[in-house]
Design a protein that fits this description.
Blueprint (H helix, E strand, L loop, with lengths): L1 H38 L22 E5 L5 H12 L8 E6 L14 E5 L1 H7 L6 E5 L5 E6 L3 H8 L11
Parallel strand pairs: 1-2, 2-3
Antiparallel strand pairs: 1-4, 4-5
Length: about 170
């Protein structure tokens, strides 16, 4: 009888392990669907958003990381952005915030343009921070995404950053 109980306990444990793997796969699928949903323009929203401040004169896009000063995740994504070597993403890098406090997160990263402008932050109007917004060379918004992890940021920028260069 003890052998039957032990066997059932082992099978129950294996069932829990399999369930955890299934839940993990489901959560990954949900996350990917949410990322895809964020890429779809909101009905009724302005079809074209143009910010001349982020226009470049050299046919390269501008990637803008939008942050707020009381956001630990924003600090981590800004540190990751600062760790990216100049020239890795095929475009210009900027960080937009309402106040000067987040500037310390990218100190020493001369390849990142820091923009402190509360009014501009309001007009960009992201729903959550940190968010990455890509602007075409003429300053027209191409897409915006919430950046949930350093891996998301790397993927969105198309930059392969070694894990050891992560500042946080």
């Amino acid at each position: 009888m003890q052998n039957v109980i032990n066997s059932l306990a082992v099978f129950a444990f294996l069932g829990v392990v399999v369930a955890l793997f299934a839940i993990s796969a489901l959560l990954r699928t949900v996350r990917e669907l949410q990322q895809a949903a964020l890429a779809v323009p909101v009905p009724g929203a302005s079809a074209v958003r143009r910010v001349t401040r982020f226009a470049s004169g050299d046919e390269r896009p501008t990637f803008v990381l939008v942050v707020t000063d009381q956001c630990p995740s924003c600090e981590q994504r800004a540190a990751r952005l600062a760790a990216i070597a100049p020239g890795l993403p095929a475009g210009h890098l900027s960080m937009l915030s309402a106040g000067p406090d987040p500037l310390r997160w990218i100190e020493g990263a001369g390849h990142i343009q820091a923009v402190v402008d509360a009014e501009l932050l309001g007009s960009v109007a992201v729903g959550a921070t940190p968010s990455l917004v890509k602007y075409a060379p003429d300053g027209t918004e191409e897409w915006r995404r919430v950046v949930g992890s350093d891996q998301d940021l790397d993927r969105l920028l198309g930059a392969d950053v070694p894990e050891s260069s992560n500042a946080r």
